[in-house]
Amino acid sequence: MAATANKQSDFSLADSAADARCRIDAALETYTRLSPACPAQLAEAIRYCLLAPGKRLRPLLVLWSAEACGCTVEAAIPAACAVEMVHCYSLVHDDLPAMDDDDLRRGRATCHKMFGEANAILVGDALLTLAFGVIARDVHPAEVSVACAAALADAAGALGMVGGQADDLAAERGGSMEVPPLDSLQSIHDRKTGAMFTVSTTLGSLVAGASEEQQAALRTYGQKLGLAFQIADDLLDVEGSTAAVGKRVGKDRDHGKLTFPGLLGVDESRRRARALIDEARAAVAPFGSAADRLTALARYVLERNR
Q1: How far apart, in whole angstroms, are the C-alpha atoms of residue 112 and residue 99?
Q2: Each residue of 14-23: pLDDT tens digit?
Q3: How far apart are CA 212 and CA 160, in angstroms?
């Protein structure tokens, strides 16, 4: 890895993120130009969900992890888009009445409110499979494509995001806990949220052909950042506004969900989030200025209001 830089490079995170989002959104728009064989309403619903304005944090992590390892952003775009497709599918399904029953996402009506529950299920199915098609066709060379597909499948599946969601629902619905509540909560979010953050940094490192040492550092960064993001999200549900956040707030309390502020209080939750961000930044410090965007993104996750 590169030696630690003495000072941070002079750049604007907002400008860097805006430029990267433009590239990501342009690629997503291309990927959603589906064949006429796709039913028109399904195609419309896919575009409505995937192209909705968003932070694109996970694809940014793919791009900037690849960049930290010396890879061009362009080479990492397909993997970044695949991660966003999986993330979007998970939001569409999470918003369904059988799950979190939300009617607002990213400041707009949720997919099932716009297109019906059956279509929302199909949109999620389509986005998940489209993600793996993108990796299979557009991530090169073949051995990297295979490694990326395996990593994304592990992160998104029963041992990762889906398993975390299952345990989250069980806890919300009064299921018995075999471990202390805080350990259970951390386990849920290490999978439900953290797995997709971690795989984003992993895909970036795989596309870049990173060393094992670099991959390990980026995995640690992703794990710490993902849990800090979830704590910040829990705090926003307590302290944020619907207008700023773009989704209904206060719903975790209303549903009796297990959250960090609910278990630890606001002040201790905020302290834990700060500690996790410090650990994330320390993990990528050996990359030096090549990881400036990752370091700045970590600060943003802690300070965000939406």
Answers
A1: 12
A2: 999 999 999 9
A3: 22
From first CA to last CA, the distance across the chain in angstroms is 33
How many Å apart are CA 293 and CA 300, to the nearest integer?
A: 10
The model's pTM is 0.92
Residue 69 to residue 28: CA distance in whole angstroms = 24
CA distance 252 to 144: 39
Q: Are 216 and 88 in contact (CB under 8 A)?
A: no
Check pLDDT > 90 for residue 212.
yes
Instruction: Give CA separation, 203 vs 24, 64, 186, 275, 291, in Å.
Output: 15, 11, 23, 25, 16
Q: Which helix (H) or strand (E) covers residue 108, if one does?
A: strand 108-109
- How many whole angstroms separate alpha carbon 33 and alpha carbon 60? 22
**Paired tokens of 180:** 């202390």
Question: What's at 48, amino acid-wise?
Answer: Y
Phi, psi of 262 (to 5 degrees): -65, -35
Long-range contacts of 105-114 (CB under 8 A, 24+ apart): 105/52, 105/246, 105/247, 106/52, 106/53, 106/54, 106/246, 106/247, 107/53, 107/246, 107/247, 108/52, 111/45, 111/48, 111/49, 114/45, 114/48
Q: Measured between alpha carbons, how far is 100 from 172 in angstroms, rounded to an integer?
A: 10
- Cα 10–chain centre separation: 26
Percent of the chain residues topping a pLDDT of 90: 81
User: What are the DSSP E strand ranges found in the chain?
Assistant: 104-105, 108-109
